Amino acid sequence: MGHGGALPRGGVGSHSGDVDPLRGQLPPRFDAGDPAVREDPYPAYAALREAAPLCRGGPGQWAVTRHADVAALLGDPRLGNRFPDDYHRFSVGDGPASDFLQRILLHQDRPHHARLRRVMSWAFGPRVVSALRPRIGELVDGLLAPACDRGLLEAVDDLAFPLPVMVVCELIGIPSGDRQDVRARAFDLGKAFAARVPEPDRVAADAAVVWMRDYIRALINDRPRRRDDLLSRMLDPGDGASRLTDEEVVDNVVFLFFAGFETTTSMIATGCAALLDHPDQLARLREDRSLVPSAVEEFLRWDAPIQSRLRLVLDPIEVHGRTIRPGRALLLLLGSANHDERVFPGAGHLDVGRSPNPHLAFGGGFHHCLGAALARAEGAVVFERLLTRFGRLEPGGQAARETESPFRTFSKVPIAVQAA
Asked: Are 316 and 326 in contact (CB under 8 A)?
């Protein structure tokens, strides 16, 4: 997705100096912890994009606000994803969660990243995802059935959370009888991915990592090899691919369990909330089902589950006349880029038929989200089935934002439904 590729060596833009040449003052500051920003970041993003393409962030950090710059920087080889060990200790403490974060695909650079990704990408390729679609449909139908009798669907607890967990468990090869226990650890595992994890959440994240590691090790020891699932492929990749160590397998399966459902959960919840808030777009989608795939893309753009990506500067890089030194960090504001009017006319309006839609919700470059195709498939099946099963979809109560997650999502989206 997006316009991947490195920036020209001269950087983006042409302004120079320590102050904004148009305003004669320091660039504005972006504060991700501001309660107003956490509740609704988009007005702040709009002000930042208007003020400057590069804003001040936290200590040693600059934030990039506009689509063209963010898209290019996502694939720039002068930026890395592997941060020093001290960074992870600062973020999440010195326990198992810190060690886990240092080993997973998300925080590796080439060539190690390419080695891990080559082994793990099998499970998310077009062949596997296409073969999964009928099964995804069966799972969605089973989850929607109780709502037909109740007349109420709680979109998060009843659908958005359980569905992706079921799908990724089947991909990895987790037995159905164990899935409730595994699911119970998922929320705590997600806490490890916050930029600064509060002390109580560190304890919970450490405990989740320990439990998941022990579970995956036991699963490896107790299962026959040569099964057609992700875990078997990682243990024996074949095709001349280099084998992973047991520790690499365990931690990256734990990571993929989490990564395989969190973005999809958020996208389904956000999409449901967006349609309830925009009944005209819901009616449009019901009238023309061919718009379902583009609607999924619009939900991802409209309120991206992952609002930013942090990159470590490895080599000096110039962005709009400002040279960023190695060791500094660039915060690439995906949520802001996805609302840039230069690329998305009427960006503040939901448009289920938007085309083109070069959103950056899945990142870009060689760190483009591994599970993007699976998330799109699950989203398309979910919204197609919702429209097919229910002739009525209306607010069933007040939707509630999830405030304890590092991702932008909802904790509750109640929907009043009536069978078609």
From this structure: yes
